[in-house]
TrEMBL record:
SUPFAM superfamilies: HlyD-like secretion proteins
Residue intervals of the Multidrug resistance protein MdtA-like barrel-sandwich hybrid domain: 69-214
Source species taxonomy: Bacteria, Pseudomonadati, Bacteroidota, Flavobacteriia, Flavobacteriales
Source organism of the structure: Formosa undariae
Protein name per its UniProtKB record: Efflux RND transporter periplasmic adaptor subunit
Length: 377
């Protein structure tokens, strides 16, 4: 009985093994699922050649076109005035900026003028008897001689005899000595050569001013210039008088400037040329940092694309029958973010945005086609 039971169990095990082996073999022969090929959607643009202005970017700080650094050429006490000598103070043309006490020096000037007057008065008797023809004009000179005013110019001396006589008495040298002192006296008072504003004050009323000391800075706030350094390759493109668009760093304000000057030499260290842009606006302040777009020239039959679309070897991707292809292009100008291209036929479909992993022959579908299908649904 036991042998019969074992035989039945063995037969069942063999049958079970057969069916299990068959099942395993059948599972291996099942076909693998086919993976659906993914076709990327791309953004495209159609080439329409036009005239592209070449804008050269530049940056710089504003400086007042008319500025005056105030230095003292004399020594003395800074006399106080009704208007305080402080930064931000506005002065009109001809108004006194700095007044230095010159009472001691003024006395020496008056002494020299008195000596000149006495020297001329001393020769008047000799002129009356020896040179009666020229006596009257020298008499008129003395009558018009005012000690409180600037020394008048000496009378003309057409004859050599008169010239020798006046020069021999030391009057010519005395006269020019007085004029020299009077000229020096004017340096004790500094007046505004134009209407403007004080931007820096390095002295205070009542302090001792020394010769050669810097006193401050005075500017005309109505007109500014911006100095920019550009590549020497643009030297022939820049033209004086062309308008320039200026922006602040936040790009919230736009100003219009004019190229006022272009330096005629190239900086040997940086190989750049310097251009000066003049701009006038009541909202501008000295020291403001601005960005400029200089209109250098215009490229005809060109397009402008993002620099990220350019490939190595001056190539770009185009679209032909839903397949990517590459063509050679002619870049003529690079900016920080874009590039200007020539020699691309009108109607050519190019990528508008970069496609990661793109290659020639890659199947794609334009975004416009996908949108059209969705609209039809």
């Amino acid at each position: 009985m036991r042998k019969i039971l074992l035989s039945i169990i063995g037969i069942l095990f063999v049958v079970f093994s057969f069916f299990l082996a068959k099942r395993l073999i059948d599972s291996k022969t099942k076909p693998k699922p086919v993976t659906e090929k993914i076709i990327k959607t791309v953004f495209t643009d159609t080439v329409k050649n036009k005239t592209i202005p070449i804008l050269i970017p530049a940056h710089g700080s504003l400086l007042a076109k008319r500025r005056l650094e105030l230095y003292s050429e004399v020594q003395g006490i800074f006399k106080p005035r009704n208007i305080l000598f402080k930064p931000g103070q506005v002065y009109s043309k001809g108004q006194i900026l700095i007044d230095i006490d010159a009472s001691e020096y003024y006395a020496s000037v008056q002494s020299a003028k008195s000596n000149l007057y006495n020297d001329i008065a001393a020769i008047m008797p000799d002129l009356r008897f020896d040179y009666p023809k020229i006596y009257q004009k020298w008499q008129d000179y003395l009558v018009n001689f005012d000690m409180e005013k600037s020394t008048p110019k000496l009378p003309e001396m057409p004859s050599e005899k008169e010239n020798y006589f006046i020069t021999g008495r030391g009057i010519i040298s005395s006269y020019y000595n007085v004029k020299n002192l009077e000229q020096h006296l004017t340096k004790y008072r500094i007046v505004a050569p134009f209407s403007g504003i004080l931007t820096e004050a390095l002295a205070t009323e009542g302090s001792l001013i020394r010769s050669g000391q810097k006193l401050g800075e005075f500017i005309d706030p109505t007109s500014y210039e911006m100095e920019v350094a550009l590549s020497k390759s643009y030297a022939t493109l820049l033209k004086v008088g062309e308008q320039v668009a200026l922006n602040n760093l936040e790009h919230t304000e736009t100003y219009t400037g004019i190229v006022s000057r272009v330096n005629g030499s190239v900086d040997t260290a940086t190989q750049t040329i310097t251009a000066f842009i003049e701009v006038t606006n009541k909202d501008l302040k000295e020291g403001m940092y601005l960005e400029a777009k200089l209109n250098a020239k215009e490229e005809e039959n060109s397009i402008e694309i993002d620099r990220s679309l350019m490939l190595d070897g001056a190539k770009i991707f185009i679209l032909k029958e839903n397949t990517l292809d590459m063509i050679d292009v002619n870049p003529v100008f690079y900016s920080e973010t874009t590039v200007v291209l020539k020699s691309i036929p009108n109607g050519t479909v190019i990528l508008a945005k970069p496609v990661p992993g793109a290659y020639a022959g890659m199947l794609v579908k334009p975004f416009s086609d996908v949108t059209a299908k969705e609209d039809n649904l």
